[in-house]
Amino acid sequence: MILIVDMQNDFAREGGALYNPEAAATISTTRELSERARVADIPVWYTQDTHYERSPEWDVWGPHAGRDCLVICGTVANICVHYTAASAALHLYDVVHPVDGISSLTGFDRHAAFGQASWLFGAELVHAVGLRFGSGK
Fold first, then answer.
1. In this model, does residue 108 exceed pLDDT 70?
2. Is the Cβ–Cβ distance between 111 and 80 less than 8 Å?
3. Residues of 19-51 as b/e, b for ≥16 C-beta within 10 angstroms?
4. DSSP 135
5. Cβ–Cβ contacts within 10 Å for residue 89, how many?
6. Rounded to whole angstroms, what are the CA distances from 5 to 44, 46, 54, 72, 135?
């Protein structure tokens, strides 16, 4: 299955509350992955960052909104994507990160997130074009 993390206007569009300039570069890859997965009858799931009024997270970021393989792409690599992937790994999913489908606020954050993901919970780092849906990764 594919999990697309927080690719919403607050993160992916200029003027969003937590705009990530790198997100725009991953939109086409994310779209292409989701289209390929649907053709192969692979489920595509989306997350959306939302909070109750006065959420403790607002103090940091301000107001904003089995053993299976789980491909996780989206934005922000070291926060939203990383903790989603970590939670998936704790639930015994094999995590795959198409690195060209994940954006971050800085290059350092992106590099650190991929390093942590591969070392801590064995995430497989791939390019989207190399993913095969159906019979294997």
1. yes
2. no
3. bbebbeebeebbeebbebbeeeebebeebebee
4. S
5. 18
6. 11, 6, 23, 7, 24
Percent of the chain predicted with pLDDT > 70: 90
Q: Give me 132's structure tokens.
A: 């095969």
Question: Do the beta carbons of residue 103 and residue 22 sit within 8 Å?
Answer: yes
Confidence band for 137, pLDDT divided at 50, 70 and 90: very low
The CATH number that domain 2-51+63-130 falls under is 3.40.50.850
pLDDT band with cut points at 50, 70 and 90 for residue 126: very high
For the stretch 49-88, pLDDT in tens is 776 666 777 777 776 654 578 999 999 999 999 999 999 9
**Residues 75, 26: contact at Cβ < 8 Å?**
yes
* Contact in structure between 46 and 7 (CB atoms under 8 Å): yes
Residue labelled with tokens 């994940």: 102
Whether the CB-CB separation of 65 and 49 falls below 8 Å is answered with: yes
H/E stretch holding 83 reads helix 82-90
Question: Taking a C-beta distance cutoff of 8 angstroms, is the pair 82, 110 a contact?
Answer: no
